[in-house]
Specification:
Blueprint: H1 9-34, H2 36-41, H3 52-59, H4 64-78, E1 84-85, E2 92-93, H5 96-103, H6 108-132, H7 135-142, H8 154-171
Antiparallel strand pairs: 1-2
Bound molecules: zinc ion (ZN).
Zinc ion (ZN) binds near residues 99 and 104.
């Protein structure tokens, strides 16, 4: 434009796309830095890009519901509902998602299957690295985060995501959604 020549269609589209991407990245950055909830969410998804679970569900429609439920759990995990009571065991927890994943007696057999699958399918190296992570990082791996605290290869991360999705989806059976909506 500065040269006095109107750009062709493709240059024009490219310029527009670039400007919109720049503007959106900046506003996402600002929004996620000022909101306490989004700030925490960035521990799972720290770039303005398509979320891994979304990409996975597009490639593999048969696990769409599992991916959808995992995203729902992520929302509950970061939301501040205060203490909630587990309707199965009666335990009251600051973070009901952590309770279902790590504590609830009714998730015990699914939890054991989850750990066993990581050990057998992931192998001893992945199992050792995964168990050495703190809870926040383990949750990041289960939610298929961008941060990749395990430094896993794509193949390893893919395997862990599938194992985690299976486990998280089973949590649905004991999850009283009505108390959160
Ligand atoms: Zn419980």
């Amino acid at each position: 434009m500065e040269s006095g020549v109107f750009p062709n269609k493709y240059t024009w589209k490219h310029t527009y796309k670039q400007q919109i991407a720049f503007h959106e990245s900046l506003s996402w950055q600002q929004r996620s830095e000022t909101s306490s909830v989004l700030k925490e969410f960035r521990t799972v998804h720290n770039t303005l890009s398509i979320f891994n679970l979304w990409t996975l569900s597009i490639k593999n429609h048969s696990i769409l519901n599992q991916c959808r439920f995992a995203v729902y759990l992520i929302g509950i995990y970061f939301a501040d509902f205060g203490r909630l009571q587990c309707h199965r065991c009666g335990f009251s927890s600051e973070n009901i998602v952590l309770h279902y994943i790590y504590e609830c007696i009714h998730s015990e057999s699914d939890r054991q299957t989850f750990w066993r699958e990581i050990q057998i399918k992931g192998g001893p190296n992945i199992f050792r690295k995964f168990t050495a992570l703190n809870i926040q990082d383990q949750i990041s791996v289960m939610f298929s985060s961008d941060s990749n605290p395990l430094h896993a290869t794509d193949k390893e991360q893919g395997l862990l995501t599938m194992i985690s999705l299976r486990f998280l989806y089973k949590v649905k059976l004991t999850f009283d959604i009505s108390q959160h909506v």
